[in-house]
Amino acid sequence: MALNMLLHSKLRSWLTIVGIVIGVGAVVGIISLGDAMEASVQSRLADMDLSSITITPGYSRAQSRIPGHGSNDWGGNPTIDAKLTDRDVDALGGIEGIVYAAGEISGREGVSYAGENATLSISGVDPQVWKYMKSLEVESGRLLEPADKYVAVIGSGVASKIYKKNIGVNQVITINGKSVRVVGILKEEGGFEDRQIYMPIDAAVNLITDAEKGVFDSIQVKAQNVEVVDTVATTIEKKLIISRHIVNENDRDFSVIALKAMAQSVTTMLSSMTLFLGAIAAVSLIVGAVGIANTMFTSVLEKTKEIGTMKAIGAKNRDILMIFVFNSAMVGFVGGIFGVILGVLISALFPMIGMTVTSGEGGAIPSVSPGLMIFGLALAVLIGVISGAVPAYRASKMKPVDALRYE
Amino acid sequence: MHANDAKALKQSLNYPLYTEKNTEAYEVNCPTSIRNNAAGSGRASLIKLTNVWKIYQMGEVDFAALRGIDLEIYEGEFLVVLGPSGSGKSTLMNLIGCLDLPSKGKVSLNSKDISGLDESELARIRGQMIGFIFQSFNLISTLNTLENVMLPLEFQEEDTTRARKRVEYLLEIVGLSDKKQNLPSQLSGGQRQRVAIARSLVVNPPIILADEPTGNLDSKTGSYILEFLDGLNKKEGKTIIIVTHDLEIIKHATRVVYLRDGEIEKIEIREKSDFGE
Ligand SMILES: Nc1ncnc2c1ncn2[C@@H]1O[C@H](COP(=O)(O)OP(=O)(O)OP(=O)(O)O)[C@@H](O)[C@H]1O
Ligand SMILES: [Mg+2]
Q1: For a pocket test of ligand 1, which of B53, B56, B136 has the largest count of ligand atoms closer than 8 A to its C-beta?
Q2: What is the pLDDT of residues A26-81, one digit of tens each?
Q3: Closest Cα partner for A217 from A7, A67, A26?
């Protein structure tokens, strides 16, 4: 039926659709932001090795920090003078599902190059297993090898951002007065790894202040695969509790952090944040729906006589119902179009106000996918239909005589 | 101005509303029994009111707007209902037009009691059998001339191309072919009533119901409208029922019903009538 031409009066008041425009705009903007954050996190997670487990000294009940690749900056619990040692690494020996376990040390030391001095993070790693533990790739040169001593692999930032003169492969930097040859430069990661210097642990122990042989700032463990990570982590905890003679849970002085568990909690946090923002958007949608319903009620009242006329010339209740529902669906549709446009603008605005959800190279810029646009439109139409339903039903049920008599 | 409208209308009366072919080609689900009767003697009873009461409840007080009306209306009549204001003319009209149901008594259309019908069946009867003409034209303000006239056909879910042809034809008859795109607010009173007439005829209903169709028009335009309706009655055999307090209209009538305080005071059969037994 071509009833669509009916009531195609100009949208009564722009105020009516403003609620819907804002609601849909907010929903679309928030979803696109949420999607972008999730995509960004997912891509970071994909880079991470989810089968790795980090053991650190100290224990905090609120393990909410995200572990980095390096183990520096990994505070631990300062109140306990706990240390991780060779013995702990040995204790992990018999655990099934572990591929490697290696201690790492870290510290911030003065590093000079071409007459300039800077304080940078140094990690001492086991050259044998390090390359398997991290998903690092070299831009030029090579990774560390077992025979290496006073050599370093440096992050891209160290190579090109810290010093006026760029550092190249085979050039020599000075760490704590000792010459160290750069053998490899890592690809840019966009994280703190870019400003990191990796060295074989045996050499690093001599360069890092307060470092002792056989004492680690962290132990990096790699499980056979992602599936066994949780079991392996639990087993490690049990083993270390025994080997470190911990009787009381309160005396616990080490933490076992599986990257996988971290990733999961971050993802959960993210989706609950999106949900919360979505709820706010939903409120504005409800306001929009009330606006449409209100306009439709007014419209039904205003058009009472015309409703009577239409009934007199043969309109069935269903026809009247359809006309009004269609009309409010149209209001929703038009509101939806502007809402989607607003949503696109909102999502384009996030990077501009510095709310980058990116943490990696370029990262994911929030964008509104065609699917999301259609969803926004459909949502607006649905709200139009729902909020128009009651007034439309009321219009359809009017008695023709009464409607005709209405002035 | 109205003189022009009237002239256009006068010319239009020279058109036959339907040729034989047109009637064939155009039939909107009108019950065949009615058509068969129309082809017959012209005496068949179309509408019958038996002891009809309409009682309005106004809070505690009941008010009887119609008190035991008995009236039979025949195929092909030009019936005029006359009476002072408040005598119940519009109330009677609403019952005949299936817009309302009686509080008591029986209204039969085509010997079928309408009080047993549900809303959608009543809507179907209104849409297919009755063409309404109102005092205040009652056009849909947001629709243009063409769309207004088309509307009844859309409610009958008529095919758009056929509907369009039919509408164009009727607009030509009422002399508004050049006003198709005008909104009601862009038409004169006489033009609006012509749109309303075209709308009332678009489904080719056997009955035309008009409640004071000339009430809002000057006497000249009004009398041309009446002549048009007269033509429909004579040439097409349409049953015309007009409610009015305009005595001028009586001269077109085959029968006049005088209403007073909700009762039929007298019924007068007119000279020109074929019903003057
Ligand atoms: N919905 C209603 N509720 C209460 N009373 C009503 C209602 N409709 C009509 N009436 C009363 O019924 C009586 C008849 O009304 P009706 O409209 O039929 O008069 P009418 O003959 O058409 O008058 P007019 O020539 O002024 O149009 C009036 O007294 C009116 O007040
Ligand atoms: Mg009246």
Answers
A1: B56
A2: 888 888 888 787 777 777 777 777 788 888 888 765 444 444 433 444 444 444 46
A3: A67
Residue B65, in any domain of the structure: yes
In the block, residue with structure tokens 């006003």: B179
Q: Cβ(B125)–Cβ(B70) under 8 Å? A: no
Same domain, residue pair A30 and A112: no
**Domain assignment of residue A326, given as a range:** 2-45+273-404
Residues of the domain holding B104: 2-269
* Chain segment B94-108, per-residue pLDDT in tens: 999 999 999 999 999
How many CB atoms are closer than 10 A to CB B180? 14
User: Is A398 found in the same domain as A295?
Assistant: yes
Decide: A181 and A152 in contact? Cβ < 8 Å.
yes
Q: How many domains does chain A have?
A: 2
pLDDT interval class at B272 (50, 70, 90): low
Residue A364: inside a domain, yes or no?
yes
Positive or negative torsion for Cα B168, B170, B174, B180 = negative
Q: Of the candidates A181, A210, A239, which is a domain's last residue?
A: A210
A258, A230 Cβ separation under 8 angstroms? yes
Mean pLDDT of A390-407: 90
Same structural domain, A296 and A202: no
Chain A residues in contact with chain B using a Cβ-Cβ cutoff of 8 Å: 1-3, 5-9, 305-306, 308-319, 399-401, 404
**Is the CB of B65 within 6 Å of ligand 1?**
yes
Q: Is the pTM of this model over 0.80?
A: no
Cβ distance B156 to A310 less than 8 Å, yes or no, reads no
The pLDDT of residue B4:
55
Residue A309 has pLDDT above 80, yes or no: yes
Q: Does residue B216 form part of some domain? A: yes
Contacts of B160 in chain A (CB under 8 A): 2
Which residue of chain A is at minimal alpha-carbon distance from B159? A1
Q: Which atom of ligand 1 is nearest to the CA of B84?
A: 25
Structural domain total, chain B: 1
ipTM of the assembly?
0.84
Question: Which of A184, A210, A236 is the endpoint of a domain?
Answer: A210
In the numeric block, which tokens belong to residue A129?
Answer: 């297993």
For residue A6, name the pLDDT band (cuts at 50, 70, 90).
Answer: very low
Residue B276, domain member (yes or no) = no
Cα B70 to averaged position of ligand 1 atoms, centre (Å) = 19
Asked if the structure places residue B277 within a domain, the reply is no
Size of interface A-B (CB pairs under 8 A): 76
Q: Tell me the sheet residues that pair with A108.
A: A121
